[in-house]
Design brief:
The longest helix has 28 residues, at about 515-540. It is built from 22 helices and 23 strands. The protein has a 9-stranded mixed beta sheet with strand order 1-6-5-4-7-3-2-8-9, covered by helices on one side. Strands 16-15-18-17-20-19 form a 6-stranded mixed beta sheet. The chain is α+β, with helices and mostly antiparallel strands.
């Protein structure tokens, strides 16, 4: 097949332009990305060879080669790993950043506008465009690859100026090589001489020393020490010595960090392992080590990221951690090792007693995997607890980034529910800035208060302005303000905390009076109930299509009315969530509560007593209901009618 030339898409050209014009101040990282990709290819070949006995490949000497040609100014990174087919080249290389170039450009612009250098550099790994970091240092990139088990290879070439070419190659070796035609050295632009062996050693040692596979570089030729007076016989010996190839130099230690004691490993080494695993260029928020011995031995090295990935709540998010058996890579994204609500955790687990030919299906049933699953989840939760008590700033970052996903565990992990509640934080009316735990809430509850009060809503402002808050604000009672979508669900599944009932202030009846206050107000309450009985019955008849009850309220101090759900009814927000997921739920009628101290309500009662047949009073009742619905952020069934009625009323005031 002849060479084919393709044009990059518009967004891809924009990305290449940004790459070439030095978004990133540290250009050394291009080599780290190429070595990381090569390591992944070797891991995949080793795994494929274990699973497919018919795959005729040699896995006895898997390695990565780095070759530098100073005269030609080229640098080549080569592996003998899994390689790629032509289709994979087009999909993974020909289309820049399969994970979303548009999102990359948007995030990059936001980071640059905020002058956030750390976030800017972190975007390459996050969006999977590490291969294109090569264009920071090269004016042409050539990729030659052949997939293991196939006979045909593929060459991909581009100068980053808007086009790339693809051609078939008959005699390509198995694996992948990436050759960079390097730009001239430029110290002002921090563009180093990447053909210099010392520079290559420095980069590999800094970023890739922990990689399992040997990273080799041809040894430098020995310096000539003989002088011009040497004999002709010595010259012959020199020629023979020059002809003998030198042994390649292995640049990395290949030591598994999780198998070494804590004293032998620096934080920088841990951080580089995290970056290699996660493709996130930011340092992790927390590092977790675990060594289990006994009947079942395994080691784990886990990391909590500092930032949530962009696709964490998407269905195709790749979760799970790397699984090794006796330091042999078995599986990437092993979902069986951690529950879904800890899907943000990255890391490595190395087991000693599992089969090398284990599959994802077998893992789901394996007792040892289930034991690891439980132990790892508890270890992560205990680390988060320690973070909260000892490192408040780091915990605040964690909760901001991962709090919503962690709370999913309240629905699915009954065994660890108390632990999850113990490390969870919530906004409350007690403090406008600081979050609170449930235990802190309970400790400052008022005397006689039996329940933990909360309200769900779209935002703190919306909840604080809700009519449901009025009595609680007047009495100084703390209310949790729950604004994450998952809050609508988990509060239904968690009835109590330390014996205290969790209670929505927008459900059921609320009575905040003390026993003494109740005794003093009993006669007044009965009197008002008698005074408003006719109005309540009449409004129930007029609004029966929308409400199942109209009653006097004990939670309102300023607003004329509010709408509440019955104690065990599904809230409107939860109904909307179910419908968005394609699940139909029956619509439950709600309760309209009236404030007898409000002039509008008391005036309507008096007008009803004297003008019973006035149609305008029915419209007033309808407006009161609609205003209560709007006050809680609900949607009107007939907005046009509401506007017409309101306009007519306003016109009469002029």
């Amino acid at each position: 097949m002849p060479t084919e030339t393709f044009e990059f898409q518009v967004e891809a050209r924009q990305l290449l332009h940004l790459m070439i014009h030095s978004i990133y101040s540290n250009k050394d990282v291009f080599l780290r990305e190429l070595v990381s990709n090569a390591s992944d290819a070797l891991d995949k070949l080793r795994l494929e060879a274990l699973r497919d006995n018919s795959l005729d490949v040699d896995v006895s000497d898997l390695h990565i080669d780095i070759e530098a040609d100073k005269s030609a100014r080229t640098l080549t990174v080569r592996d003998n790993g899994i390689g790629m087919s032509r289709e994979e080249v087009i999909k993974l290389i020909g289309t820049i950043a399969n994970s979303g170039t548009a999102a990359f450009l948007r995030e990059l612009k936001e980071a640059q506008d905020a002058n956030d250098a750390a976030s800017t550099e972190g975007l390459i790994g996050q969006f999977g465009v590490g291969f294109y970091a090569s264009f920071m240092v090269a004016d042409q990139v050539t990729l030659l690859t052949r997939r293991a088990g196939e006979s045909q290879g593929t060459r991909w070439t581009s100068d980053g100026e808007g086009t790339y070419s693809i051609e078939d190659v008959a005699d390509a070796p198995q694996g992948t090589s990436v050759t960079l035609r390097l730009k001239p050295e430029d110290s002002e632009d921090r563009l180093h001489d990447y053909t210099a062996p010392w520079k290559i050693r420095e980069i590999v040692k800094r970023y890739s020393d922990f990689i399992t596979w040997p990273i080799r570089m041809a040894a430098e030729p020995a310096a000539k020490t003989s002088d011009a007076s040497d004999s002709d016989d010595a010259e012959g010996a020199d020629d023979a010595e020059k002809a003998a190839p030198s042994e390649p130099e292995t640049l990395n230690s290949m030591k598994a960090l999780w198998a070494r004691s804590r004293d032998e490993v620096s934080d920088d080494e841990y951080h580089e392992l995290y970056k290699h695993i996660s493709h996130d260029w930011n340092e992790p928020l927390e590092t977790i080590r675990l060594h289990a011995e006994g009947t079942f031995e395994y080691q784990a090295l886990l990391f909590i990221p500092a930032h949530a990935p962009q696709d964490m709540f998407m269905q195709d998010f790749k979760r799970g951690i790397q699984l090794y058996v006796k330091r042999v890579f078995i599986m990437d994204h092993c979902e069986a090792l951690l529950p879904p609500y800890l899907r943000f955790v990255k890391g490595v687990v190395d087991a000693q007693d599992l089969s090398l030919n284990v599959s994802r299906e077998i893992l789901q049933q394996d007792r040892q995997i289930q034991l690891m699953h439980r132990r790892l989840a508890k270890k992560v939760l205990s680390t988060i607890k320690d973070m909260r008590t000892s490192h408040a700033d780091r915990y605040a970052t964690f909760w901001r980034e991962f709090g919503p996903v962690l709370k999913e565990g309240l629905l699915s992990d009954f065994e660890n529910r108390d632990a999850i509640l113990g490390v969870s934080s919530f906004a409350s009316t007690h403090d406008a800035q600081e979050l609170t735990t449930l235990r802190e809430y309970v400790e400052r509850m008022k005397e006689g208060q039996q329940d933990i009060y909360f309200m769900t809503g779209e935002s703190r402002q919306a909840i604080e302005n809700s009519p449901h808050m009025e009595a609680f604000r007047a009495k100084g009672i703390d209310v949790l303000l729950l604004t994450d979508p998952v809050d609508e669900v988990w509060v239904q599944a968690v009835p109590k905390f330390e014996g205290k009932q969790l209670r929505s202030i927008a459900k059921g009846e609320v009575d905040l009076d003390t026993e003494e206050e109740k005794a003093e107000a009993d006669s007044e309450r009965e009197k008002r109930q008698e005074e408003y009985a006719d109005l309540l019955t009449w409004m129930k008849e007029r609004l029966g299509e929308h409400v199942k009850e109209v009653r006097l309220s004990s939670r309102l101090t300023v607003s004329p009315a509010c709408i509440v759900s019955d104690t065990h009814d599904v809230t409107p927000a939860l109904q909307s969530m179910y419908r968005a997921m394609g699940q139909e739920v029956p619509t439950a009628k709600r309760i309209l509560e009236l404030n007898p101290d409000h002039a509008l309500v008391s005036g309507l009662r008096k007008a009803r007593a004297t003008r019973e047949g006035d149609d305008g009073l029915a419209e007033t009742a309808e407006l009161i209901y609609d205003m209560a619905l709007l006050a809680e952020g609900g949607e009107l069934t007939d907005p046009a009618r509401f506007v017409k009625l309101m306009a007519d009323r306003l016109k009469r005031t002029l």
